[in-house]
Model the fold of this input.
Amino acid sequence: MRLNSAVFEVSAALPSQFPKPTLPEIVFSGRSNVGKSSLINSILNNKSLAKISSTPGKTRTINFYNLGSLRLVDLPGYGYAKVPQSEKERWAELITAYFESERDLRLVAQLVDIRHPATRDDIRMIEYMVEFEFPFIIVLTKADKLKKSALAQRISEFNQQFSEYEGINLIPVSAQTGEGIGELRNILISVVQD
Done:
């Protein structure tokens, strides 16, 4: 599988706009401004495929990227305070509709900013995945923002915060420096080849 062969497929604002579930899918989930689009671009080695904005809450649709034998799915970010409640509810309904549809969901990459403890919304999302038995990993973004000692401390704190979830996989990454991107690519490829 060639990760750099991705093309933008569709931006879905309604469940009826989801592409047909003909491919295995890997989902990227996380709060607004956690770096989902930057990470997708880094994984795919394409700086401009997923649109990046410094303004949180820019991704308001579910964006699908087609790699031929795999589809990457970029969910809208959650937790952004300046978005009207009606818009937050629409996003929640759209995300729920995605997870409840019959798709070949291989993995959810749950993104959490390594500089901060997981938010209540992050924990809710993890609990949702555990409850419905979706396979997932936790990707700790923005690892380049911390020195090595602080990075090790934060990973230890995340291990404690997530201790009740058995066998959780934490992967620190940086879309800027490439740290952890190779490991993440290998995981993505392995879940599709299984």
Residues 85-100 form the longest helix (16 residues). The CA atoms of residues 179 and 190 lie 19 Å apart. Strands lie at 7-12, 24-30, 62-66, 71-74, 104-113, 136-141, 170-172. The chain has five helices and seven strands.
